[in-house]
Design goal:
- The protein has a seven-stranded mixed beta sheet with strand order 3-2-1-4-5-7-6, with helices on both faces.
- The longest helix is centred in the N-terminal third of the chain and has 17 residues, at 17-33.
- The model has no long low-confidence stretch (mean pLDDT 92).
- 41% of the residues lie in helices and 20% in strands.
- By secondary structure, the protein is α/β, with parallel strands linked by helices.
- Strand 2, helix 4 and strand 3 form a beta-alpha-beta unit.
- It is built from ten helices and seven strands.
Length: 249
């Protein structure tokens, strides 16, 4: 990406309802499920431009890993000097050194998702935690996923099986973005039908291409973000995304 594109994405992570709601909801779930909530050694795999690093810094010392050099340059520019360019399947981190590994919407981009999870398992201390978020339901796979370079979407059962195959114990797993899902589902299905009938091979638009009007943006962020108060304790049966907290025995 051009430099301006990185800054635009950083602004999007700060201002768009989906990113705001995701941060609020995910961190409510994460913090509720952590045995210890400060002084943690944290590795954020697939950190992108660092949108989650300031929140992770409240829990300890986060280091970001991403395969994209431009993204890591942005992270360093914003004060996270120890971030590194690397692949999620070959982490440049010593074994058994991390208290928490986060993979926020990361493993769906990786060919060998179980391999990435095994690497997370390797670098964690015994008793350490992993937090994973992914898009839900392969039948919702659309041009948006292609543009974002997603390899797949997941069900809760599939994600649990992969996490267990990597050696983790599943602490909590739930669908998220539940309240808005009845609105999102028909919209995506109509969009998929439109893509099938009138394909546009060079279409690079995604569902994050436009930020809605301020009031709508705040409302959607509040709805998505507020779910974390409930979903930290229960497992929802459906939703547009999935989160899972695992623990290394």
């Amino acid at each position: 990406m051009e430099g301006v594109a990185y800054e635009q994405f950083l602004n999007l992570e700060r201002d768009h309802w989906w990113f705001i709601g995701r941060r609020r909801s995910y961190f409510r779930i994460l913090e509720h499920r952590l045995a210890r909530k400060d002084g943690l050694a944290i590795l954020d795999v697939g950190c992108g431009v660092g949108g989650m690093l300031p929140e992770l810094a409240r829990l300890g010392t986060p280091v970001g890993i991403d395969a994209d050099e431009g993204s890591i340059a942005i992270c360093k520019r914003h004060g996270f000097a120890d971030c590194k360019v690397a692949s999620g399947t070959t982490l440049p981190i010593e074994s058994g050194t991390q208290d928490l590994v986060t993979l926020f919407d990361t493993i769906e981009h990786v060919d060998d998702d179980v391999g990435a999870l095994r690497e997370a398992h390797r670098v964690l201390k015994p008793g350490g935690s992993v937090f994973i978020s992914v898009p839900a339901y392969q039948f919702l796979y659309s041009n948006n996923d292609k543009v974002a370079h997603h390899k797949r979407r997941y069900t809760k059962g599939e994600l649990k099986r992969r996490v267990r195959a990597a050696g983790f114990h599943v602490v909590h797993a739930t669908y998220v973005n539940v309240v808005l899902f009845p609105l999102i589902l028909p919209a995506v299905l109509v969009l998929k039908l439109k893509e099938a009938l009138f394909p546009k091979p060079d279409d690079t638009r995604t569902n994050l291409s436009h930020t809605p009007a301020s009031f709508v943006n705040r409302t959607l962020a509040a709805i998505f973000g507020g779910e974390g108060h409930v979903l930290k304790s229960i497992s929802a049966p459906f939703g547009h995304s999935l989160v899972l907290v695992g623990r290394k025995p």
